[in-house]
Design goal:
The structure holds three protein chains of three kinds.
Chain A (H helix, E strand, L loop, with lengths): L32 H4 L16 E7 L5 E7 L1 H5 L3 E6 H7 L23 E2 L5 E7 L2 H8 L3 E6 L6 H5 L13 E9 L2 H7 L2 E10 L11 E7 L4 E6 L4 H12 L6 E5 L13 H14 L3 E4 L2 H7 L5 E11 L7 E9 L10 H4 L12 E9 L14 H19 L3 H8 L8 E2 L5 E2 L4 H11 L5 H10 L3 E15 L3 H5 L10 E7 L5 E5 L8 H13 L6 E3 L3 E2 L16 H28 L6 E4 L2 E4 L2 E7 H10 L13 E6 L16 E15 L6 E11 L6 H20 L30 E6 L19 H14 L15 H9 L1 H5 L2 E5 L1
Parallel strand pairs in A: 1-12, 10-11, 14-15, 20-21, 28-29
Antiparallel strand pairs in A: 1-5, 2-4, 2-6, 3-5, 7-15, 8-13, 8-30, 9-10, 9-12, 11-22, 13-14, 16-17, 18-27, 19-20, 19-26, 23-24, 24-25, 27-28
Chain B lengths: L6 E3 L4 H10 L3 E4 L5 H6 L7 E4 L9 E3 L5 E4 L4 H6 L7 H7 L5 H6 L2 H7 L6 H7 L3 E6 L2 E6 H4 E3 L2 E2 L6 E7 L5 E7 L6 E8 L6 E5 L6 E3 L6 H10 L12 H20 L3
Parallel strand pairs in B: 1-3, 2-3
Antiparallel strand pairs in B: 4-5, 5-10, 6-7, 6-10, 8-9, 11-12, 12-13, 13-14
Helix pairs in contact in B: 9-10
Chain C lengths: L5 E8 L2 E8 L4 H8 L18 E4 L2 E4 L12 E3 L12 H8 L9 H14 L5 H7 L11 H11 L1
Parallel strand pairs in C: 1-5
Antiparallel strand pairs in C: 1-2, 3-4, 3-5
Helix pairs in contact in C: 2-5
The chains are: A alpha+beta, B alpha+beta, C alpha+beta.
């Protein structure tokens, strides 16, 4: 049951070092570590099966082409090849995957292998299975595919024209399109003292590129028709919703197992096409098949983050710097297949006004397909792109009007006393104190000595800038927002499951529905359960990973969307509370008192005020399971509890596109200092601070780790990480050689700070925070802008990724980007 | 990621290595493998035979002659150079080797491999040209010396032809050297690099990453305007790729040339 | 001698001798993971950039995806599985856990081997030296902050 605390019982601000009762809030050693530091984790590629075959995919070398024929005969002749699979077979054996959009997007036919056409370089066309990895790779070279290249489209705006159409069944590249209009934007413009217009901003294509690539080992049980998939899928429930109907089987025929996963960051959510191909192969060849994705495959085909172009941004502003809202035309490029899209077309609306009290927002949003890698909900999914827009707006407006971007932020931020704050589209920001976080960030980065730093940099011939990035990490989706996009969809609310039991020897065993990829679920779960059951985290056995057979998952189970601390731990708390309740009832029945007389302390159930009358957990377990004669007939306990956590959501108002789309909002406010070499455009981040507020922190060290990691990924995306294509549709950064991610020497000195604004809406007052929101990107862009621009002059940072040459261009040709901005003063 | 079939031999002597290289048309020498294995993983090239030079002791070692010449065996790793007291006779060698990639690559990658693969973004070709190194090549016809300025012939092509081996590199002593680069991330692949040496009086500049082979310039003096004019006069025509446009590379070449020369001048 | 497409090699890994026939084209990391079933070392890329496969060969830190198994014939290899003794974590492993220097754990084995090599050579590395020592190991989860702290702590 969710407990709603309107007035938090604990202070909103927690100073470092303050100790709290219980294990929640402590930095206990992680349960996952012992096996991982010994190399004894079990990642999917570590799982071996006797006589298994290795899969390698034949992939399209063309961005767009008709498949005239696929000839696998020579591959089959190679000694050691077990079999193949082609798109023709897939089109016979399976139905296309379920599409989330309305027509025309609804009519897209997406299969496990390209059937008839390839739509991006790297699109899988056929699969070969062989005795060894090397042989499978060799065999793919023997598969002869006859392609007829077609014109291709690699740009979102270009794609809108529908001159080159990717999906003939849809007839258009537009996946989804709609206008969101809240407040009264036209009146706001009338009311404004200035109208700032930004012609174009572009959020670049990149991805979190988890270190472990995707893959699976699939076994098929012929007797039962059951597939077992050892893999990396972050949302197996949703994976099954796609795969089961395609394979024409019931959901229960797909068992997903994972123990350890080497990072996911949203990139491992749309694995259903490859997994379906592997399922078909396992069944066809009657042997386990194993697919390991290589880095080049991941970058080329699986998956990218949404690329978004913002056009005609219009911002009404009052003379004192208060912004009244904004309007924008957004074009989202989702690559060759939507898959999880078009959810990105609404998910940004969880943070419509960003961190700001803007009431009038109009967004004309269109999502299109292009002949590039498909996208998936990459870390920060869709909110990050939108929040970047709001931060660019604030900095550009402040810059153009000669206002201090710090003061402008504070003036426009949602104020601490306004929480819970309802946004123009009905989302409720649960709690926060943005101004306070900003102050802490400024203190950490030594903002007061800014001028000194600037002079010092200039004395060394460098140009200095400082910038702020404010962001929100909205967590725990209300899937009802999907109905705003497509009223026919039958998804709303959210859920997560956990089980908790007391075994016959008194061991506490917990299973989760989530799919951790390093977030420490076993550890934080143990903290929560230990506090409830009155024992230590060491005594809580949390099963590692995920297994459908544990029956502790629901349709939307998984690890995504910054929600574990709410949904996962909400389910854990619910299960543990119920288990605790049953333990007390059982103890009460044994002692002949009421359950309210029992407390759980020191791994025992004992009568309050009479510690001698105690039953250790082992006794409770043994009594119920093996020695239960004489227990009262009305005693209804099993000590084996399954709990489904369900956050309180309503279905949104589809007409107004209005409603609460997310339960919690964590804050991250970052400050960044850069030094630019004006002779080359090469720049260095010389100082960095990140302040996080995710409500009550279950394990502060884990929270900090997420802040560090999200920042590193954002800094990579801000500086070097970009998926660029050549004119033929070849990805020019298909591996870590060309796609430069931060290494240890690339990281700036990083300081972090924390406050805790308890969430009134969640069982533990905690908020999910794993994604972060891309504050690093916003902060670097702001710092570069601050370094390069002056009021009304200088270049405009209009892209999210600013590599050295990009900065060089801004320095050399400021007039080119300057013309993107205009100010109309009334 | 997965190599094609290949045959492998690990000879114990240079003569045996030359015999193996000579008797198979598709044979390639395997030094540290930090480039070749990658190339084979990508299946961009697939030699039929790999002749592993790891056991050939005479290809390793760094010697310091009485006149200060540093002679480096082709199989000497970057780490060997960084750690070598002998190599400090020409300090720029260790300083540049230390900037190459990372510890793992430096432990296996060899100067011979770096030089013979002659990837345009490599550090050592421009460096060795600038310091006036001499390459010793052994083939079936015997041994010959080639100055570094004549060693690099084209992308991935050097004067050490098929069936031949680079055995050692000799570097005259000197301290008046500079090396400036813009890499992609710290110690990353170079977008442009420039090596400069003032030891012979007037500067020798070698610009990397802008052409198939290092572009060598010998301006009359180290004066800024003279160096700048020399770079501009070279009419560089660098490639454009995902990391930099031709224009940007051209611009960086000029800036880095000045910085490399200034660095060299500061040490003469 | 002649060139061969496969040969029998002998390696010692974490003190244990193995003799296996292996194709010349097989990468050392695949040999370690698939043939010897030591799955602690990982693969994170296909261009030798990520370092997840890092091991020690005769005491030297290398990326095992950039070597052929046949090149390791006769070598003494150390992998992450050799760091702990009878399930007792060594100081470095413990420091990684204490300082939350791992999240998903995928880069961790390679990172530990790089840190091991660093500390053997330099018992009190500076921060810059630590970062230089792990520059060949990519982590996407931690931002390296805690990894550097852990190695500092282990060095003391």
């Amino acid at each position: 049951m969710t407990e709603t605390t309107v007035t938090p019982e604990r202070p909103l601000v927690v100073e470092e070092g303050e100790s709290k009762a219980g294990f929640i809030g402590q930095n206990i050693p992680r349960k996952e570590d012992k096996r991982l530091v010994q190399g004894e984790g079990v990642f999917f590629d570590d799982v071996k099966r006797h006589e298994m075959g290795f899969v390698h995919f034949v992939r399209s070398p063309y961005a767009h082409a008709r498949i005239k024929s696929v000839d696998v005969s020579k591959a089959l002749e190679l000694d050691g090849v077990y079999g193949t699979l082609t798109g023709d077979e897939v089109a016979i054996l399976t139905d296309p995957f379920f599409e989330l959009s309305t027509p025309p997007g609804a009519n897209i036919k997406d299969y496990a292998l390209a059937a008839g056409r390839v739509r991006h370089v790297g699109d899988p066309v056929a699969a070969v299975v062989a005795r060894t990895r090397e042989l499978a790779r060799d065999a793919t070279e023997l598969v002869e595919v006859d392609y007829e290249p077609l014109p291709h489209v690699l740009d979102g705006e270009e794609s809108l024209k529908d001159e080159v159409v990717l999906h003939e069944e849809a007839g258009s590249n537009t996946v989804w399109s709609g206008v969101f209009d809240w407040g009264d934007f036209d009146a706001a413009v009338e009311d404004a003292d200035h109208v700032v217009r930004i012609e174009r901003l572009h959020f670049d294509r990149f991805s979190s590129t988890p270190l472990e690539c995707s893959g699976c080992l699939v076994e098929f049980n012929r007797g039962t028709g059951q597939w077992t998939i050892h893999g990396t899928h972050q949302m197996p429930g949703v994976g099954a919703i796609w795969m089961a109907p395609a394979l024409r089987v019931g959901i229960d025929k797909l068992r997903f197992i994972s123990q350890d996963i080497g990072g996911g960051f949203g990139n491992k959510i749309t694995l259903h096409p490859q997994y379906t191909a592997c399922c078909l192969l396992a069944r066809k060849l009657n042997r386990p098949v194993q697919w390991t994705e290589w880095r080049t495959d991941q970058h080329t085909a699986n998956t990218h983050g949404n690329e978004r172009t913002f056009l005609d941004v219009t911002v009404p502003v009052k003379a004192d710097g208060t912004m009244l809202g904004f309007s924008v035309r957004a074009i989202d490029d989702c690559g060759a297949f939507p898959r999880y899209e078009p959810l990105g077309c609404i998910i940004w609306a969880q943070v419509t006004p960003g961190c700001y009290r803007w009431r009038n927002v109009r967004v004309d949003f269109t999502q299109v397909c292009t002949n590039k890698s498909p996208v998936a909900p990459n870390r920060g999914y869709s909110r990050m792109q939108h929040l970047w827009l709001t931060e660019r707006i604030v900095d550009i407006v402040a810059g153009e009007l000669g206002l201090d971007p710090i003061e402008v932020r504070k003036k426009n931020y949602v104020k601490h006393e306004e929480f819970p704050y309802e946004t123009p589209n009905g989302c409720v920001y649960d709690s926060g104190d943005y101004a306070r976080c900003l102050d802490i960030a400024l203190e950490l980065i030594g903002y007061d000595s800014l001028e000194e730093k600037r002079q010092d940099a200039e004395s060394r011939g460098k140009v200095f800038g400082i910038g702020i990035g404010s962001t929100l990490d909205s967590g725990t989706n209300n899937f009802g927002q999907s109905m705003i996009l497509n009223p026919e969809l039958q998804f709303s609310g959210n859920n997560e499951v956990a089980t908790a039991k007391l075994d016959i020897f008194g061991e506490v065993v917990v299973t989760l529905g989530t799919v951790p990829q390093g977030q420490g679920h076993e550890t934080t779960t143990a903290q929560v359960v230990a506090d409830i059951l009155g024992c230590t985290p060491d005594e809580i056995n949390v099963r590692a990973g995920h297994d459908t057979y544990w029956n502790s998952n629901a349709g939307l189970s998984g690890t995504y969307a910054s929600q574990f601390a709410v949904t996962g731990l909400g389910a854990v708390k619910g299960a543990a509370d119920k288990l605790a309740d049953e333990m007390k009832q059982l103890a009460a029945a044994v002692f002949g008192c009421g359950p309210d007389d029992i407390e759980l302390v020191a791994s025992q159930a004992r009568i309050k005020g009479n510690p001698e009358a105690a039953l250790p957990f082992m006794a409770l377990g043994a009594i119920l399971n093996a020695n239960n004669a004489g227990l009262p007939p009305e005693l209804d306990v099993t000590l084996n509890v399954r709990y489904v956590f369900r956050p309180q959501f309503e279905k949104p108002d589809l007409e107004r596109k209005f409603g609460n789309l997310t339960l919690t909002y964590a804050t991250q406010i970052h400050a960044c200092a850069v030094e630019i070499d004006p002779e080359t455009g090469v720049y260095e981040i010389v100082d960095y601070a990140a302040v996080d507020d995710c409500g009550n922190r279950i394990h502060p060290q884990i929270v900090e780790g997420q802040v560090h990691g999200a920042t590193a990924q954002a800094l990579g995306a801000a500086t070097h990480e970009i998926f660029t294509y050549d004119e033929e549709g070849n990805l020019l950064t298909p591996n870590f050689y060309d796609y430069h991610v931060p290494h240890a020497l690339d990281m700036p000195p990083m300081k972090t700070g924390y406050i805790e604004s308890t969430s009134p809406f969640t069982p533990l007052g905690a908020k999910g925070m794993g994604e972060g929101g891309g504050a690093g990107i916003h902060a670097v862009c702001a710092a570069l802008q601050n370094a390069l621009g002056k009021k009304g002059e200088g270049p405009i940072v209009w892209r999210s990724c600013n590599p050295y040459e990009g900065v060089w261009d801004l320095l050399q040709k400021p007039e080119e980007t300057r013309k993107l901005v205009s100010v109309e003063t009334r | 990621m997965l190599l094609r079939e290949v045959e492998y031999a690990r000879p114990a002597s240079v003569q045996e290595a030359l015999r193996l290289l000579g008797s198979h048309e598709g044979a390639r020498a395997l030094a540290g493998g930090q480039t070749l294995i990658n190339v084979m993983k990508a299946r961009a090239a697939s030699p039929d035979v790999l002749v592993d030079l790891a056991d050939i002791g005479e290809l390793r070692g760094i010697e310091l002659a009485s006149d200060g010449t540093v002679t480096i065996g082709a199989m000497t790793t970057y780490t060997d150079i960084v750690d070598s007291a002998e190599a400090r006779a020409r300090p720029i060698l260790g300083e540049v080797c230390k900037q190459i990639a990372d510890v793992q690559v430096r432990n296996r990658g060899t100067v011979g491999g770096n030089v013979c693969s002659n990837d345009p973004t490599n550090h050592l070709p421009p460096l060795l040209v600038a310091v006036g190194a001499t390459m010793t090549i052994l083939g079936q016809g015997g041994e010959r010396s080639v100055p570094a300025s004549e060693f690099f012939l084209g992308v991935y092509m050097t004067a050490a032809g098929p069936g031949e081996l680079l055995t050692k590199i000799s570097v005259p002593p000197g301290k008046g050297d500079g090396f400036a680069s813009v890499p992609i991330g710290r110690d990353g692949t170079c977008i442009v690099n420039v090596a400069a040496s003032l030891d012979s009086g007037a500067p020798t500049l070698a610009i990397g990453c802008v052409d198939a082979v290092p572009v060598v310039l010998t301006p009359d003096s180290a004066a800024e305007e003279t160096v700048r004019a020399a770079v501009r006069g070279a009419n560089l025509d660098p490639p454009s790729d995902v990391h930099a446009s031709a224009d940007y590379r051209r611009h960086l070449a000029e800036v880095l040339a000045l910085r490399a020369v200034a660095q060299a001048a500061g040490r003469t | 001698m002649e060139a061969v497409s496969s040969r029998t090699i002998t390696v010692e890994v974490n003190g244990v001798q193995y003799e296996r026939e292996v194709e010349a084209r097989r990468l050392l990391i695949h040999f370690i993971r698939d043939d010897l079933n030591l799955t602690g070392s990982h693969i994170g890329c296909d261009t030798g950039n990520c370092g997840a496969c890092s091991v020690l060969i005769d005491g030297v830190l290398v990326k095992s995806c950039m070597m052929l198994a046949v090149q390791a014939d006769g070598a003494k290899i150390e992998t992450v599985e050799g760091l702990a003794s009878d399930g007792e974590l060594n100081g470095l492993q413990q420091a990684f856990s204490d300082h939350h220097a791992l999240q998903c754990g995928y880069c961790t084995p390679g990172m530990l081997m790089s840190a091991t090599a660093l500390l053997r050579e330099n018992a009190s590395p500076s921060e810059e030296e630590i970062r230089k020592g792990i520059q060949g190991n990519i982590c996407r989860c931690t931002g390296y902050v805690n990894i550097v702290e852990a190695i500092k702590a282990a060095a003391q």
